[in-house]
Specification:
By secondary structure, the chain is of the alpha/beta class. The chain has a single domain, classed as Leucine Aminopeptidase, subunit E, domain 1 (3-Layer(aba) Sandwich). The protein is 39% helix and 22% strand. The chain has a seven-stranded mixed β-sheet with strand order 1-2-7-6-3-5-4. Helix 3 packs across helix 4 and helix 4 crosses helix 5. The longest helix has 18 residues. The chain is globular and about 45 Å long. The model has no long low-confidence stretch (mean pLDDT 98). It binds ligand AR6. Ligand AR6 binds next to strand 3 and helix 1.
Length: 175
């Protein structure tokens, strides 16, 4: 699915985010920036050790924050590490919104034209996919309506169910 927002587009893709050739892909990170399983594990395996080494130099960030490193051996030049909330820790919705927003701002700051997001916090961190879709998509739509130079934002969903949830949510949000 593909929609236009001003001069940009939002694309929904079912697949593996580590195969994206966008300028940056977003990692579903933790505040310590220690790459564990899920998306982070896949990025570590395909991108090589330099990504974790750069994360170690940065040292960490707040929940809702985002930092940038090289993409190592990935097709993407950069990895933006966005820290989503762990379900149950409190204020999850705001934190997920901030993680999305701070990733988009960081992409613009580095003059990146394309970025790919996973469904942040919906794996190991246990956040519901339907709320994730609503928050990440509405935050992105609002952001692209402002003054952004990002041309495409891809949401890369791992399962058919997650893809369907994002598709239905995007359709609803644009009504
Ligand atoms: N491509 C796209 N989506 C994926 C991929 C992939 N290759 N692999 C998993 N997903 P998760 P979190 C989906 O667990 O919940 C790590 O240990 C997955 O199905 O990666 O934010 C980190 O180091 C789910 O829908 O991230 C953190 O400690 C979504 O991506 C912690 O997990 C996010 O799942 C972060 O947990």
């Amino acid at each position: 699915m593909n929609v236009r927002i001003k001069d940009s587009e939002i694309n929904l893709i079912k697949g593996d985010i580590t195969e994206q050739d966008t300028d940056a892909i977003v990692n579903a990170a933790n505040a310590q920036l220690i790459m564990g399983g899920g998306v982070a594990g896949a990025i570590r395996r395909k991108g090589g050790p330099i990504i974790q080494e750069e994360c170690n130099k940065i040292g960490g960030t707040f929940v809702g924050g985002a930092v940038i490193t090289t993409g190592g051996n990935l097709k993407a030049r950069y990895v933006i590490h966005a820290v989503g909330p762990r379900m149950g820790e409190g204020d999850e919705d705001n934190k997920l919104k901030n993680a999305t927003l701070n990733s988009l701002k960081l992409a613009d700051k580095h003059n990146l034209k394309s970025i790919a997001f996973p469904a942040i916090s919906t794996g190991i961190f246990g956040y519901p996919i339907n709320k994730c879709a609503k928050i990440m998509l509405s935050t992105t739509i609002e952001y692209l309506k402002g003054n952004s130079n990002i041309k495409s934002v891809n949401f890369v969903l791992f399962t058919q169910n997650d893809f369907n949830v994002f598709k239905n949510t995007l359709t609803e949000l644009l009504k």
